[in-house]
Amino acid sequence: MSRQPVVIIGSGLAGYTVAREFRKLDAETSIQIISADHGGFYSKPMLSNALATGKTPLSILNANAEKMAEQLKMTIRSHSRVTAIDPSGKSVTLRDGEKLPYSQLILALGADPVRLPLEGDGVDAILSVNDLDDYHQLCTALQGKKDVTILGAGLIGCEFANDLAVAGYRVRVIDISARPLGRLLPQAGGAFLQHRLEAIGIVFHMGAATQRVERIHESLRLTLDNGEIIQTDVLLSAIGLRPRTALAEAAGIKVNRGVAVSRSLQTRYSDIYALGDCAEVEGRVLPFVMPIMHAARGLAATLARTPTLVRYPAMPVVVKTPACATVVSPPDPNAQGEWLIEESESGVKALFQSAEGKLLGYALLGTVTKEKNLLATQLPAVME
Ligand code: FAD
Predict the structure, then answer these.
(1) What range defines the domain where residue 184 resides?
(2) 86-139 pLDDT, tens digit each
(3) Pocket of ligand 1 (CB under 6 A)
(4) 157-183 confidence digits (pLDDT tens)
(5) What is the pLDDT of residue 14?
(6) Where is the FAD/NAD(P)-binding domain (predicted)?
(7) Are 169 and 147 in contact (CB under 8 A)?
């Protein structure tokens, strides 16, 4: 008996990986991806280290929607936004009012960049890069420009700073924290990273908050809360992402920080699932590639009628700052323990250990990153 298609909302890594994994298990059931964007497949992590190697938006695109549809034997509706989900009628509504039925629905909606509530007439010139179209916009904005200021010294902010500096731009980074990657690294690690990034010309304004952004002819003028004034050509915001939850919430699906799902990635409706940056799996929002790969495999098995719980091993994250090799596996926020830190000129090895000496997390910078795989084998699973 033919069933209604499995419908996936979103053509990012989460949407495409679950489609690909499901196809390996089921060659027959029709799959439909609905995407608000172009629907092509590309590696999003590449966006924050593409400028230095001269990659264009086109060269980053692995395959357009048409090619992906052919490869995975599925239908892709690109530039189509889902505006409503009807869980009891088992259909989704597109912006133009068209209704599409589903047998199972996967929410792979991603996340929105967080915007700071800033004052001034330059606020709408602030860019953020969370997809290929944004990267295109950044490349256009950079044409003929020299100075770039980045709001946020987190993972993505530091990666863009390194990339832009190597590409020849004068780069400043502003953050309210005392050190870059403040949420992921202990103080010594942040200081080491900052030092290495400063060595390639990046200027940090740490412990400072941006208050106003004004347009002054072709450039932007920032006023910080410490009274500092910064003039810049291009302003890039990288202060974090917020899971896209509005569509789910309007359909009566439980939402916390992300779309709340169980370990089978199921919402409160048995045929609606979520994964990727939009999802909160048993209380955890993990907006990274590795959790998506594990979640997609588990979900594909569940969709193919082998109910499967997602399991996350330890998943260290490589920070793409070539000026300072960095790998982090942050301890669980509730973990009890302390950082043990070894510093040298060539690196920082920070191990987060329990009172019993069990390794619960690490931050490795510089030459000690070569120990990342060996140490990873000692780390606890993120979700057994
Ligand atoms: P997205 O890729 O955001 O996809 C969401 C999709 O949903 C899009 O196609 C969008 O159009 C669609 N959509 C949303 N709403 C609707 C709607 N209503 N109707 C139809 N379609 C809709 N992670 C790592 O592990 N390592 C890294 O080095 C790394 N580097 C990164 C660098 C950058 C610059 C960024 C931004 C992220 C990086 N990440 C990295 C994170 C990683 O890329 C993301 O976790 C991952 O790509 C998220 O995939 P996703 O499919 O969940 O979301």
Answers:
(1) 115-237
(2) 999 999 999 999 999 999 999 999 999 999 999 999 999 999 999 999 999 999
(3) 9-15, 34-37, 44-45, 47-48, 81-82, 108-110, 129-130, 156, 244, 247, 276-277, 287-290, 292, 317, 320
(4) 999 999 999 999 999 999 999 999 999
(5) 98
(6) 6-283
(7) yes
Residue 354's CATH number: 3.30.390.120
The pLDDT of 339-363, averaged and rounded, is 97
Encoded tokens for 28: 């027959």
Q: Are residues 13 and 61 in the same domain?
A: yes
- Give me the helices (H) in 39-114, please: 57-60, 65-72
Q: Bridge-partner residues for 329, per DSSP? A: 362
Question: Cα(304) to centroid of ligand 1, in Å?
Answer: 24
Q: Which amino acid is at 145?
A: K
CATH number of the domain that 279 lies in? 3.50.50.60
Question: Long-range contacts for 315-318 (Cβ within 8 Å, ≥24 apart)?
Answer: 315/286, 315/288, 315/290, 315/291, 315/382, 316/362, 316/372, 316/376, 316/379, 317/155, 317/184, 317/288, 317/290
Shared domain for 33 and 124, answered yes or no, is no
- Per residue in 190-213, is it b (16+ CB within 10 Å) or e — as a string? bbbbbebbeeeebebbbebebbbb
**Nearest Cα to 287, choosing from 115, 63, 130?**
130
pLDDT at residue number 384: 87
Please, which pLDDT band fits residue 207 given cuts at 50, 70 and 90? very high
pLDDT of amino acid 1: 46
